[in-house]
Amino acid sequence: MKVCTNCVLPETFPGIQFNKEGKCNFCLDSKSAEIREGRKAEYRKRFASLLKEHKGKSSYDALICYSGGKDSTHTLSVLKKDYSLNVLALSFDNGFVPQQTCDNIRNVVENLGVDHIFFKPRFDVMTKIFCECSRHDIYPPKTLERASTICTSCMSIIKFTALRLALEKDIPFIAFGWSPGQAPITSSIMKNNQQMVKMMQKAVYEPLHRVAGDDIRPYFLEDRHFSDSYHFPYNIHPLAFLEYSEEEIYDNIARLGWEAPTGVDANSTNCLLNSFGNVVHKERFGYNPYAFELANLVREGYLERSTALERLDQPEDPRTVKMVKKKLGIR
Ligand SMILES: [Zn+2]
Question: Of 160, 132, 134, 129, which Cα lies nearest the Cα of 148?
């Protein structure tokens, strides 16, 4: 298969074109390192000034969606230790969190001294959703470029549950551990507003509601949340504007008692369902749902191209895929 000579995007990726040297259009359109560094500095400044305005005003400064993976663990540590924020960590159990990840979450929140909530949505409802997503892509095609349909469903439930909690507890920031490859710096500090949230919720709520009905209601905002008595928080994903390397992340989180789980695929450090989501996506579309993220990381110098290619080529553990299918009742 033809792959960009600069990043790792394959010829099967939607909308890709190559020039004579084999460089893809995404690479040719990318910003220079100098512009990227300037932007990072600008966003760090902006974050610092927002903290001045909001820090200490509520019982928590930030709610973090804490998956227990390497990136969100590092993000949590930075917010607590470097920015001295009072953080509430929220983890979700979709039924496929490895035991080692549960241990990591406990070690990290204990070592950092942060409050933590483990939320487990109804497994029968999740099963319905994951099974349907393994058969059909229920969202617009554009979403498939960045994540499998299964992953998008899980993430949507997490994002809106977190937003609901942040509104109800009046927390000014919701933090995510997105890598700079997963989400661009331009979205790394984003104020939620009623209209945008309404639109975004509708886009995922309707397809999910067709699958699972009113049982998904607790995971989304209700009409009352759109009244003026609630303050909409900022979404932040600080890895986009911080200086770091994968090596530093692993060093830092090891000191907090984090150990890599086994059985997960090469692109997840916290979820076994991800292996199945990847297999379905690759069979259906012929490219790895992590190709886009890893290509960005390579292009921006966070990851060696050879490491990224290895990760994309590494097959999912068939025992994990078998376990997931069995638990979901899929033959
Ligand atoms: Zn490229």
Answer: 134
Confidence grade of residue 234 (pLDDT, cut at 50, 70, 90): very high
Instruction: Collect all residues with Cβ–Cβ distance below 8 Å to 41 and sequence separation of at least 6.
Output: none
Burial class (CB in 10 A: 0-12, 13-18, 19+), 313: exposed
> How far, in Å, from the CA of 180 to the mean position of ligand 1?
16
How many Å lie between the centroid of ligand 1 and the Cα of residue 124?
A: 41
What's the gap in Å between 290 CA and the centre of ligand 1? 14
Choose among 163, 158, 161, 166: nearest CA to 59. Answer: 166
The two three-digit tokens of residue 280, written as one number: 């379905």
pTM over 0.90: yes
**How far is the C-alpha of 325 from the C-alpha of 323, rounded, in Å?**
6
**Alpha carbon of 136 to ligand 1 centroid (Å):** 29
- Expressed in angstroms and rounded, the spacing between residue 27 Cα and the centre of ligand 1 is 4
Write out the two tokens for 294: 């890893």
Cα 187 to averaged position of ligand 1 atoms, centre (Å): 22
pLDDT at 143: 79
Distance CA 191, CA 163 (A): 12
How many whole angstroms from 194 Cα to the centroid of ligand 1? 36
Report CA-CA distances (Å) from 143 to 150, 153, 193, 219, 250: 11, 11, 21, 20, 29
Average pLDDT over residues 245-269: 94
What separation in Å is there between the alpha carbon of 59 and the centre of ligand 1? 45
Q: How confident is the prediction for the chain on average, in pLDDT?
A: 95
Q: Could you tell me which residue, 141 or 112, shows the higher pLDDT?
A: 112
Residue 139, pLDDT > 90, answer no
From the CA of 4, how far away is ligand 1's center (Å)? 5
Query: What band does 62 get if pLDDT is binned at 50, 70 and 90?
Result: very high
* Cα–ligand 1 centroid distance for 295 (angstroms): 7
